[in-house]
User: Fold these one by one.
Assistant:
Number 1:
Amino acid sequence: MPSLRNVLKALALTSLAAVAIAAPVPEEAGDACAPPRPIWSHKATTTSLGATSVSSTPTSTPTLVTKPVGDTPTLPPSGDTPDLSGTNLTLQYVAIGRGIQNYTCTGAGSNSTAIGAIATLFDATDLAYSDEALLHTIPALIVNIPVAEASTVQTATQRLDFDVLGHHFFDINGVATFDLDTEDKILYAAKVMSVNAPTDASKGPAGTGAVPWLQLKAKVPYVDTSVGLGEVYRVETAGGNATPCTEAGVITVQYAAEYWFYA
């Protein structure tokens, strides 16, 4: 019987034949209740955006990533009290996530309900080790760039090019999934803590504000087993909060964030 991961991968690949890559939603169109759209083009065995082959299932005994040269980066504080808890695990990757937050509405004027996110994860590990301050400026910039073009970011001082590290989505059981398929690692995660984003965080293209910062740990027990990852933090969020409900349906809101992975 095929694994859940392979079934999900097949469904995602099939949907790409009919679904376009998501682009930022203009603020005036942010409250339209449209169905969520997958934002990745495919899952590839290399970090190149042009790769076309599908990755294999992660091995059961992955090798931990070799750290870039430099001091280990430190998770940024949110300024909220209490803040996210620390971890005794070892930093493996830092990624920039660019995608959409999805919400459902039961009707006009109703309260929206979050139903998960879909995002492409770009590898920013080297940047985290070399220039944390520059890293933290990226989500507010990349949230305004169409996902298809988000591998390149022009900062005030330089152009940065990012490889795809993997993808973030919610599986058929509603579990947060981080599939770092270029590294053969995957995390099925459950939220353990949430804090408010800083008041000066980017509100995103829709102007609705930044989603909370999160701490998530491997979900145990679960039908599938995480491989090579035990914990992830979502920090430095930009955009993603829901727009008002104007009718029954689904709202998609553009967002970006940093994801720090530990094992």
Note: Residues 4-46+87-262 form one domain.
Number 2:
Amino acid sequence: MTHRPKQPAPFPTKQQVLDFIRDHPGEVGKREIARAFHIGPAGKADLKALMREMVDEGQLERGRKRRVARPGALPHTVIVEVTGTDTDGELIAKPIAWEQGGKPPRILLAPERRRQGTAIGVGDRVLAKLHRINDHLYEARPIRRLAPEPSRILGVFEPGPGGSGRLISVEKRDKAEYMIGHEDAEGLQRGELILAQLLPGRHYGMRLVKPLERLGDTKQPKAVSLIAI
């Protein structure tokens, strides 16, 4: 009895790839797509070319480590900020990092399974696991509540491209860098100690700040004493 050779699975269409990625929150790699559509080594090059074409057409966007996602898709795990409640009393949140332009997807925060201490409320920042309902709605399950961000940042100014600047925090518990817009950076000098107000939003992944007070060069006694506090 002869056995017929196993026929290879049909190569997926762009729509099938989009449907697969839509059902998987966050970023997806070539390996997961190949496994889902039973694409063997001989078809990997064609799959890579298809994904590159979809990125060029704007149907997909590149993520980390050669992974892709639908434009505007949120990652599987994300930091959100609770902004209010809906008519049913459920908490509504928004992603802390949103650089797509336009309005971010709506996020409904599910109740905590094991509540310790005070309940999560408006203004809290939460590390949460997302479940996509559709392109405009996600459900989030809290992993843990995060410490509140400081409203003011003390840092050293460094000039940036296009007249903008960076504020490098001198806080012991915060070694992050922040962005100062070109209008607010005008007149500031390299190495100057700045007290700044944290602003909502991000620019190229960096939090925005607005200078409140210029405290002089970091070598001056007043600045040195402030950094040491």
Note: The chain has three domains: 14-69, 77-146, 152-228.
Number 3:
Amino acid sequence: MTRFAADIVADLRARIVAGDLKPGEFLPTAKEITAGWGATTATAYKAMELLRQEGLAAKVVRGIGLVVTADAPAVAAAWAPPPAHGDLVRARIVTAAVELADRDGLANLSLRLIGERAGGLVSGTFYKWVRDRAELETLMAGAVFAGHPPPKPAGTWRAQLERLARLQWRMYRRHAWLARTVSFTAPGASPHVTEHTDAAARALRDRGCSPAEAADLALAVASLVRGCALALESEDPRARRAEADAAEAQFAFGLARLLDGFERE
């Protein structure tokens, strides 16, 4: 795909979103594209093919040319550029690191193993895609939280906080290393992580808390869950399995008492 063809498609996509080109109307012909954009005929036909591939254009029955499809406005509005190569490589690295940390533990991560699992990346090129170990761990935590967005608001503020806290608890139990890598307050915290505290703060604002108070209480809930997970994560793996039920009971007790305190305020 030539970049110029993509530019032509982007211009026409924008005109569809703006309503300048409506469903059923004719799109520019190859001749009009070559004249209007200064493109070669081959580039014009490439742009027309891309419009069809995206679902923005369809051939006219018993006619010549392309028309805007009925779905084109919605398709054009929802369009997003494909991820850059660097983003794809970084995603492979993060996925590989999460899988290895789940299997072997955070302390046993190595560039060699991550590179092999990520599709044969050479360890010497690793920091071309990820700045350092700290950024990798932030990305790993963000990837886990991205797969577990906050539940949709429903019920009382307390019910919302309980669902959110239990979701985080399940994440920590599934990924024993997660509690050591996640941060809800660091400047570089993943937006997927802070989305959880934002959801808790919204529930607390609905209760009548001020924005500042809601933010503090939301952080208290997240810190309680993470603290319980850290205490469990620090145990020997065999002891961790043996103490799973006790840890669950301690977490539930701590969460209930914390929310009881919120209600009394």
Note: The chain has three domains: 3-78, 85-130, 148-264.
Number 4:
Amino acid sequence: MGRARTLAQVYRHFGEVDAAGTSPLYERVAVALSESDEALRVIEAAPARKRHPTVILAALHDLALSGRAPALDTLLRMTDSVVAVAVRRQARTSETGRCAVLYPAVAEAARRVGAHTVGLIDVGCSAGLNLNVDRVGITYSNGQALGDPSSPVQLSSSIAGDRPVPTRAMPEVVARVGVDLDPVDVTDADDVRHAVRGTTVED
């Protein structure tokens, strides 16, 4: 069994590997945090489940959406404010790209059991975007297309490996149920901002 990575190594790996090529901003911030002893001390004092880069970066995103995000050099001196947001809030990851996998999977499952309609239940639904999986259009790297070609939400997805993507259209969706441990309070301006503008781990 390998030795557990230090917090600095976790942040550097996130920046140089996980965020590389997908989020230059998160890449830069994560690496900068990995090199700041002061920032790492503050993050280390947070509950274990709140120390992960995705959670801390989501908290930074929250500050940005509220107009309170500092410049990078200032961020490294006010990590306690970022951690306070991370501890107080749940990180919501609303990623419509998951529909590229969900659509053919749900359609194929329905085919196998002979279902002509389906109900969708999303546990940990965040903003509930994936409950609308049947309402997006998806184009795969092999030229195959699924979903609604007229949808304003159009996704592109690369296929890895040589296994074919099921071609069946999704049956009619007759129920959509979202379950979340931290539901949005529509009377709370901050919660509404999170839900509408999206505090996510991607940028």
Note: Residues 7-88 form one domain.
